[in-house]
Amino acid sequence: MLRIRVVKTASRANAVQVVYYKNGKRFIFKHIGSASSSNELESLKLVAKDVIKNFNPEIPLFEQVKLDNLLYLDKTEFLGVYSTFLYEVISGLISQVGLDRIRKQLLLDLVTIRIVEPASKLRSIELLESYFGIKHRRQSYYQSAPQWLLLKEEIESIVLEFAKSNYAFDFDLLFYDVTTLYFETFEEDELRRNGFSKDNKSQQPQILVALMVTREGFPIAYSIFPGNTFEGHTIIPVVNAFINKHAVKEFTVVADAAMISATNIQELLSNNINYIVGARLANLSNDLTEQINGRITREDGESIRIKTDNGYLICAYSSVRYRKDKYEMEKQIEKARAIIETPSKGKKVKFIKTTGEHVVLNQTLIEKSKKLLGIKGYYTNLDENVASNQTIIERYHELYRVEQAFRISKHDLQTRPIFHFKEDPINLHILICFMALVVSKHIELATGDSIRKFLTECKKVTDARMLNKITNKETRIRSKYNEKALEYLKSLRLPH
Questions:
Q1: Which of 147, 174, 223, 417 could form a disulfide with 210 if both were Cys (CB 3.0 to 4.6 A apart)?
Q2: Is pLDDT of 120 > 50?
């Protein structure tokens, strides 16, 4: 039989115990706590009474009952809220992708917080504690970070393995594009260089990042170039390196028109690389322009195929594109007329030409443009029996997946602006952002929701932190799972 015992301690406090007697000897079943006042003593006695009341005689006496979660409101202090559920979900996905195999917990935690709330690396360490109660020393970051750069190849291999098993990636089709990331500085160096900026930050140095994604838009590899690199010069070395690394036998790369020149196409052909790229119709010869104009009937969905030195030129017509192209052309012609009437130095406007001392409308270019209104062009070396015109067009239009990946990277993960100034920290920043992009894109593909909506719903599941002032131990109480959070767990194949 269990009894309450009160005994004086060395400090003259009152210790409350639950005891039992066996063979004339006294045994302590549970030490409840020590009280320094009469009120505390009464509270401890109440806890002891609950222990006795809830005692199950079928449980051996020597097995102590855990009462750390037994809370009395007047003896409980609210400590705050953690988003532990969100951490558990993202950590589960990191493991699912296989990134936990690198065994660098601080790096993985920085990836997690990059997804949740992008910030500087040191600020991220603070956020890890405030969001999740995860503590890391700043010194640990300074000591470990230089070694993480050596993990790039291993990380890309892990990601590629996941893409093969989860997104059926078989090297058949790879989408390629580049973007620019600018710095909050105006000082250049060998890596940070001024160049054509996709963010309209031409006065600020930048780097060029090339990204390769699967048909679904899942990222599998990236490369970094100096900011003044012409984007068309990146595709050959990147694609060749990828092919050689993975011993790829048959391969098709999809890229936009900016990636491809006649030289690039010849190099792709010489390396047995299939390609689908956008064509700049405005740069076509008059002969090709006349062929297209004479063969295409201007019906929606119609396409033609013409053999050229750059491979097959596939052209397709769209009435929607026609209206857009016509509007843009008329706007450009109006600008040209305004420049002719009021000459302005430094302004480059389409559809004007200089004849002697006079600036006039370029009627030849206008007529050529009219013949190409509503027509979109694509180059490929794939024969029609391998890939039809419609297949080529559909595959090219899937290139927007890369743009989606860049959107997530730039806006949701805040890859830019970059505040680092040395090459190693810059490379590490891109590595962390790439890993975060991998997990984020997997979330979007698996759930069908944006990463922002995913975070919003998961943050609704919180853990209240409560301090039991009697036991001086912290207890966490999780809020009810909302319907969307449960749906996410199911979609992501995570335990719940």
A1: 223
A2: yes
